[in-house]
C-alpha cells in the first residue's frame, strides 16, 4: 500500500544548492522568487529599510515582494538592480535564437527573375525577332 505525500510548500523544497522544480501554481513560483530575493538581501547583510531606500521603493513593497504577494515588475526590477542582480533579471527571458530552418532560409540566395530585353537608347521594350512568328 502506497502512502501519499502531503503537498509541501515551495519554501520547504528550497535548499542551498538545489530547488525542487515542481510548482503547483504561479503564486508558488512568485513565493520562491521572493524567498530568493530575501536570501540575497540577508547574504549581503542589508536591512529591508536600507534595500527599499536604495531601490526607491517603500519598505512595505519590499516586504510584499519577499513574501511573494502583490508586487509589480517595476518593484522587482528596482530591487534586483539595487542588489546588483539586473543581469539575472534580463536572463529570465532570453532573446530567442534563430531556428535552424530560419538559418537555411537566410543562407539560401534568392533567384532573380530574368529581365526582359530593353532598347538601351529609348528604354522601350524590344520585340525579339526569334519569338516573332511574323518576322522575316
- In helices, the fraction of residues equals 40-55%
Question: In the CATH scheme, what's the topology name of the domain at 10-91?
Answer: 434 Repressor (Amino-terminal Domain)
Q: Assign an overall shape.
A: elongated
The fraction of residues in strands falls at: under 5%
Spans where pLDDT lies below 50 across 5 or more residues = 1-18
Second rung of CATH, namely the architecture of the domain at 10-91 = Orthogonal Bundle
- Seen as an oligomer or otherwise, the chain set is single chain
Span of the ends, CA to CA: 100 Å
The number of strands is 0
Rg over C-alpha atoms, rounded to the nearest angstrom: 32 Å
The average pLDDT value, as a whole number, equals 77
Structural class: mainly alpha
Classified in CATH, the superfamily of the domain at 10-91 is lambda repressor-like DNA-binding domains
User: What order do the SSEs take from the amino end to the carboxyl end, as H and E?
Assistant: HHHHHHH
Main sheet characteristics: none
Number of helices: 7
What CATH first level of the domain at 10-91 would be assigned?
A: Mainly Alpha
Amino acid at each position: 500500500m502506497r502512502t501519499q505525500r502531503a503537498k509541501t510548500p515551495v519554501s520547504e523544497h528550497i535548499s542551498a544548492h538545489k530547488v525542487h522544480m515542481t510548482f503547483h501554481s504561479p503564486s508558488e513560483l512568485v513565493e520562491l522568487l521572493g524567498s530568493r530575493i530575501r536570501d540575497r538581501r540577508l547574504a549581503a547583510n542589508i536591512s529591508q529599510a536600507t534595500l527599499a531606500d536604495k531601490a526607491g521603493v517603500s519598505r512595505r513593497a519590499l516586504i510584499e515582494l519577499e513574501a511573494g504577494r502583490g508586487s509589480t515588475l517595476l518593484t522587482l526590477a528596482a530591487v534586483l538592480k539595487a542588489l546588483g542582480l539586473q543581469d539575472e533579471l534580463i536572463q529570465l527571458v532570453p532573446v530567442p535564437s534563430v531556428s535552424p530552418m530560419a538559418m537555411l532560409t537566410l543562407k539560401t540566395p534568392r533567384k532573380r527573375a530574368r529581365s526582359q530585353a530593353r532598347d538601351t537608347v529609348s528604354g522601350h521594350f524590344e520585340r525579339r525577332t526569334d519569338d516573332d512568328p511574323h518576322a522575316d
